Amino acid sequence: MNLLRALSIARVCARYRLDNLLPQHPAMLLVKVLVALNPRCWSVCEHFSRGARLRLALETLGPIYIKFGQILSTRRDLLPDDIADELAKLQDQVPPFASDVAIAIIEKAYKKPVNEIFSNFDPEPLASASIAQVHTAVLPNGEDVVLKIVRPNIAKAVNKNIKFLYGAAKTLQRVWPDARRLRPVEVVAEFEKTLHHELDMVREAANASQLRRNFLDSDIIYVPKVYFDYTVKNIMVMERIYGTKVSDVETLNRHNVDLERLARNGVEIFMTQVFRDSFFHADMHPGNVLVDLTNPEKAKYCAIDFGIVGSLSDDDQRYLAENFLAFFQHDYKRIAQLHIESLWVPENTNVEDLTSAIRCVCEPIFQKPMSEISFGMVLLRLFQVAREFDMQIQPQLILLQKTLLNIEGLGRQLYPDLDLWDTVYPFLKKWAKEKYSLSSLLQRFKAEMPFILEKLPEMPSVVYEFLQQKVESSRTK
User: In this model, does residue 130 exceed pLDDT 90?
Assistant: First the structure.
């Protein structure tokens, strides 16, 4: 570890009394000394909760650590709720880099002066975040676009801080036995993967293009066009869209938007991405969702920022759909069986023990009105219970849980009385019926037919070898 960086972080830990959050160990001696030497630190615990202190420390450490806290906030299977709730408040509030630097990046990428690339370029950034900042421009054909430009030297900063975080995670795992349950090295690895994906604008452009194709004819969501001819690894050029932030409920009300319809459409969009497309926008916080008010009676969503997406396999889809259906049917044994059948828990898990544990979590939830039940929290509780039975949570399910919590938050912010069950249940029933219908099975069989025909000539020898093994096995007994 870099000694000066370690000292700087230790000072921030001392300032926000993170020594009370971390294990008692000689490795914490430096932080405790710094606390003792700074009287202003002594009363911090009285003014802020432990989650708030951790959030403030990450904000002080800078953009990469803010990003780490945002990712960490999604791991509610590992963190106490109060800490996860505080970390979820972290926002990318990063000063923009200079306009002349942005222009230099553009001209280096395209090997042309900026006025030869665009008929107009606004040097004043539209938005600025930890990974990139956004500028507006006009293409030679007159189309309005936005440029998402990766911050200069950010890759170097990311690698340097990731290296430090790995060192800290390994140290924590070595000195604190309870850290094994939190799996700090795995969390850092997940963070590293996410960050490197967000640094690649070509990857993000591909994500946006896929989502646009999936919803090309939709009347409830619009995904902007990507200009691949102008997109390179550190710059993405995308159609500029105009809209109102989804969190600006006052403006939506002023335009007489049907908020219940808008909230229900948000849930439908999420379910469609997960169960129809197996490809979902995994960063649907309010800053990444606008509302097009061109026709307020049929206001539609506009999605932006496609750096993080998730995908699900057929098994993941079935697991989630059947779990939700079984949950609302109070069929806890079926939920337990699904966990075992899907190999999310070991095959030798006692189904009755797992059923009992799931019942203890789910029954209290049903004491609430249906409109107050959170699907995201249901999923979280199921993961937490399953972890006690050695369930290994897959990254795509963590992304899905995070997205579901975001969608629910948006929906209930727009329309607090939104009944998610009334919205989701018909969708799931229709999906299951179509997924396992005769026509669907025939379509899948048709798709697999070339593979079957290719392997058909090999079948006699495979059957012969199988029978031969059976005969030899019976002779040896």
Answer: no
